[in-house]
Amino acid sequence: MTDTTRELPRDLEFVPLSADDDETAGQWLDLLAESSGDVPHAAPPCNVDMIGSLRHAPPATALDDWVARADGKVVGALRLVLPEGAPAARVDQLLVHPRLRRRGIGRALHAHALELAGKHGRSTLSATLTEGLPDGPPLGAGPAAFAAAMGAVRADVPGGLHQWLDLGRHNPLADGVPAAPPGYWLVTWGTVTPDEYALQVSALELSLGDAPADAAQQEVRTSYARQFEKMRVGRGRRAHHTGVVHEASGQLAGYTSVSKTTGNPEYLLQGMTVVHRAHRGHGLGLLLKLANLDLALRHEPQVRLVETANDETNRPMIAVNEAMGFEPYDRMVSWTREVGSAES
Question: How far apart are CA 260 and CA 238, in angstroms?
Answer without folding.
Answer: 6
